[in-house]
Design a protein that fits this description.
MepB-like_sf, alpha+beta, 11 strands, six-stranded mixed beta sheet, single chain, three-stranded antiparallel beta sheet, Trna Endonuclease, Chain: A, domain 1, MepB-like, MepB protein
Protein backbone atom coordinates (compact mmCIF):
# COMPACT_ATOMS: atom_id res chain seq x y z
CA UNK A 1 0.00 0.00 0.00
CA UNK A 2 1.28 3.42 -1.02
CA UNK A 3 2.84 5.14 1.97
CA UNK A 4 -0.21 4.00 3.96
CA UNK A 5 1.54 4.05 7.34
CA UNK A 6 2.58 7.64 6.72
CA UNK A 7 -0.97 8.59 5.71
CA UNK A 8 -2.42 6.99 8.85
CA UNK A 9 0.09 8.83 11.00
CA UNK A 10 -1.12 12.07 9.42
CA UNK A 11 -4.75 11.05 9.97
CA UNK A 12 -4.07 10.48 13.65
CA UNK A 13 -2.37 13.86 13.92
CA UNK A 14 -5.44 15.43 12.29
CA UNK A 15 -7.76 13.77 14.78
CA UNK A 16 -5.74 15.34 17.62
CA UNK A 17 -5.34 18.70 15.88
CA UNK A 18 -7.57 21.43 17.36
CA UNK A 19 -6.07 24.67 16.02
CA UNK A 20 -7.40 26.68 13.10
CA UNK A 21 -4.98 25.86 10.28
CA UNK A 22 -4.97 23.87 7.05
CA UNK A 23 -6.07 20.32 7.82
CA UNK A 24 -2.87 18.24 7.83
CA UNK A 25 -4.31 15.47 5.65
CA UNK A 26 -5.33 18.06 3.04
CA UNK A 27 -1.90 19.65 3.24
CA UNK A 28 -0.27 16.25 2.70
CA UNK A 29 -2.50 15.50 -0.32
CA UNK A 30 -1.81 18.90 -1.86
CA UNK A 31 1.95 18.39 -1.58
CA UNK A 32 2.09 14.74 -2.62
CA UNK A 33 -0.67 14.42 -5.22
CA UNK A 34 -1.88 17.83 -6.41
CA UNK A 35 1.46 19.61 -6.87
CA UNK A 36 2.94 16.72 -8.91
CA UNK A 37 -0.27 16.90 -11.02
CA UNK A 38 0.49 20.58 -11.85
CA UNK A 39 -2.39 21.73 -9.66
CA UNK A 40 -1.51 24.77 -7.59
CA UNK A 41 -3.31 26.49 -4.76
CA UNK A 42 -4.22 29.88 -6.22
CA UNK A 43 -6.07 31.07 -3.10
CA UNK A 44 -6.50 29.85 0.48
CA UNK A 45 -7.02 27.52 2.16
CA UNK A 46 -9.43 29.49 4.31
CA UNK A 47 -10.44 27.29 7.24
CA UNK A 48 -14.04 27.64 8.42
CA UNK A 49 -14.16 28.63 12.09
CA UNK A 50 -17.77 27.56 12.67
CA UNK A 51 -17.60 25.02 15.51
CA UNK A 52 -20.23 22.82 13.84
CA UNK A 53 -18.00 22.45 10.77
CA UNK A 54 -14.66 22.05 12.56
CA UNK A 55 -15.14 18.27 12.82
CA UNK A 56 -15.25 18.08 9.02
CA UNK A 57 -12.03 20.07 8.35
CA UNK A 58 -14.10 22.52 6.30
CA UNK A 59 -12.03 24.95 4.28
CA UNK A 60 -12.33 26.90 1.05
CA UNK A 61 -9.51 27.16 -1.46
CA UNK A 62 -8.85 27.66 -5.14
CA UNK A 63 -7.02 25.03 -7.17
CA UNK A 64 -5.88 26.26 -10.60
CA UNK A 65 -8.50 29.03 -10.21
CA UNK A 66 -11.33 26.54 -9.51
CA UNK A 67 -13.31 27.36 -6.35
CA UNK A 68 -13.24 24.36 -4.02
CA UNK A 69 -14.73 23.37 -0.67
CA UNK A 70 -12.80 20.64 1.15
CA UNK A 71 -14.41 18.45 3.83
CA UNK A 72 -13.41 15.25 5.61
CA UNK A 73 -15.99 12.47 5.90
CA UNK A 74 -16.64 11.12 9.39
CA UNK A 75 -16.75 7.38 9.94
CA UNK A 76 -19.74 6.44 12.08
CA UNK A 77 -19.93 3.09 13.90
CA UNK A 78 -23.58 2.23 13.18
CA UNK A 79 -23.74 2.89 9.44
CA UNK A 80 -21.50 2.01 6.50
CA UNK A 81 -19.47 4.61 4.64
CA UNK A 82 -18.85 8.14 5.82
CA UNK A 83 -21.00 11.09 6.86
CA UNK A 84 -20.52 14.58 5.42
CA UNK A 85 -22.13 17.84 6.57
CA UNK A 86 -22.30 19.99 3.45
CA UNK A 87 -24.00 23.28 4.27
CA UNK A 88 -23.43 26.99 4.65
CA UNK A 89 -24.62 29.48 7.24
CA UNK A 90 -27.09 32.06 5.95
CA UNK A 91 -25.76 35.60 6.17
CA UNK A 92 -29.28 36.93 6.83
CA UNK A 93 -30.75 34.39 9.28
CA UNK A 94 -27.56 32.74 10.61
CA UNK A 95 -29.31 29.37 10.08
CA UNK A 96 -27.70 26.51 8.19
CA UNK A 97 -28.90 25.87 4.63
CA UNK A 98 -27.84 23.75 1.66
CA UNK A 99 -25.10 25.06 -0.59
CA UNK A 100 -26.68 26.72 -3.61
CA UNK A 101 -25.65 26.87 -7.25
CA UNK A 102 -25.29 30.66 -6.82
CA UNK A 103 -22.44 30.06 -4.33
CA UNK A 104 -20.26 29.40 -7.38
CA UNK A 105 -18.34 26.41 -6.08
CA UNK A 106 -16.71 24.46 -8.89
CA UNK A 107 -15.83 21.39 -6.83
CA UNK A 108 -16.35 19.79 -3.44
CA UNK A 109 -13.49 17.53 -2.35
CA UNK A 110 -14.29 15.04 0.39
CA UNK A 111 -11.35 13.25 2.00
CA UNK A 112 -12.13 9.73 3.17
CA UNK A 113 -9.98 7.46 5.36
CA UNK A 114 -10.66 4.17 7.06
CA UNK A 115 -8.46 1.36 8.36
CA UNK A 116 -7.15 0.32 4.95
CA UNK A 117 -8.05 3.04 2.43
CA UNK A 118 -7.42 6.71 1.87
CA UNK A 119 -8.57 8.88 -1.00
CA UNK A 120 -10.79 11.74 -2.05
CA UNK A 121 -14.11 12.19 -3.75
CA UNK A 122 -13.84 15.07 -6.20
CA UNK A 123 -17.38 16.16 -7.04
CA UNK A 124 -18.04 18.82 -9.67
CA UNK A 125 -20.84 21.34 -9.25
CA UNK A 126 -22.76 19.62 -12.08
CA UNK A 127 -22.51 16.24 -10.34
CA UNK A 128 -23.78 17.70 -7.05
CA UNK A 129 -26.70 19.43 -8.79
CA UNK A 130 -27.59 16.32 -10.79
CA UNK A 131 -27.65 14.23 -7.59
CA UNK A 132 -29.72 16.80 -5.68
CA UNK A 133 -27.01 17.79 -3.18
CA UNK A 134 -26.73 21.49 -4.14
CA UNK A 135 -29.89 23.57 -4.15
CA UNK A 136 -31.21 25.36 -7.24
CA UNK A 137 -34.40 27.25 -8.05
CA UNK A 138 -36.03 23.85 -8.71
CA UNK A 139 -34.61 21.72 -5.89
CA UNK A 140 -34.04 22.09 -2.17
CA UNK A 141 -30.60 20.45 -1.83
CA UNK A 142 -29.22 18.61 1.22
CA UNK A 143 -27.51 19.65 4.44
CA UNK A 144 -25.66 16.35 4.71
CA UNK A 145 -25.28 12.99 3.03
CA UNK A 146 -23.43 9.68 3.29
CA UNK A 147 -20.68 8.50 0.99
CA UNK A 148 -20.25 4.82 0.20
CA UNK A 149 -16.85 3.69 -1.12
CA UNK A 150 -16.92 0.69 -3.47
CA UNK A 151 -15.54 -1.66 -0.77
CA UNK A 152 -18.45 -0.87 1.59
CA UNK A 153 -21.34 -3.34 1.60
CA UNK A 154 -24.50 -1.33 1.03
CA UNK A 155 -27.77 -2.91 2.12
CA UNK A 156 -30.38 -0.51 0.76
CA UNK A 157 -31.29 0.37 -2.81
CA UNK A 158 -30.80 4.07 -2.03
CA UNK A 159 -27.27 3.46 -0.72
CA UNK A 160 -26.44 1.34 -3.78
CA UNK A 161 -27.59 4.12 -6.13
CA UNK A 162 -25.55 6.68 -4.18
CA UNK A 163 -22.51 4.41 -4.22
CA UNK A 164 -22.77 4.06 -8.00
CA UNK A 165 -22.60 7.79 -8.82
CA UNK A 166 -20.19 8.64 -6.01
CA UNK A 167 -17.51 6.12 -6.95
CA UNK A 168 -17.20 7.56 -10.46
CA UNK A 169 -15.64 10.53 -8.65
CA UNK A 170 -13.28 8.72 -6.25
CA UNK A 171 -9.49 9.01 -6.45
CA UNK A 172 -7.61 6.41 -4.40
CA UNK A 173 -4.36 7.43 -2.70
CA UNK A 174 -3.88 3.90 -1.32
CA UNK A 175 -3.05 2.26 -4.63
CA UNK A 176 -1.06 3.67 -7.54
CA UNK A 177 0.30 7.19 -6.96
CA UNK A 178 0.87 7.82 -10.68
CA UNK A 179 -2.74 6.94 -11.48
CA UNK A 180 -4.01 9.29 -8.75
CA UNK A 181 -1.81 12.14 -10.02
CA UNK A 182 -3.00 11.57 -13.59
CA UNK A 183 -6.67 11.65 -12.52
CA UNK A 184 -6.19 14.85 -10.53
CA UNK A 185 -4.42 16.46 -13.48
CA UNK A 186 -7.26 15.48 -15.83
CA UNK A 187 -9.80 17.14 -13.52
CA UNK A 188 -8.05 20.39 -12.60
CA UNK A 189 -5.87 21.05 -15.65
CA UNK A 190 -8.66 21.06 -18.24
CA UNK A 191 -8.74 23.99 -20.63
CA UNK A 192 -11.76 26.16 -19.86
CA UNK A 193 -13.54 27.90 -22.69
Amino acid sequence: MLELKKLYKIRNMCNNHKTISTPRALDYCLKNFYQPADVIVTRGPQVQKDSKRANYDACYLELNKYKVLHLTAKITPKYPGGFVALWKRSQTTNQIEPIDISDELDFVIISFQDDSHIGQYIFSQDTLIQNRIFSTNNQKGKLSFRIYPNWVDTKTKSAQLSQKWQNKNYVSFSDNKKTAIKLINSIFCQQTT
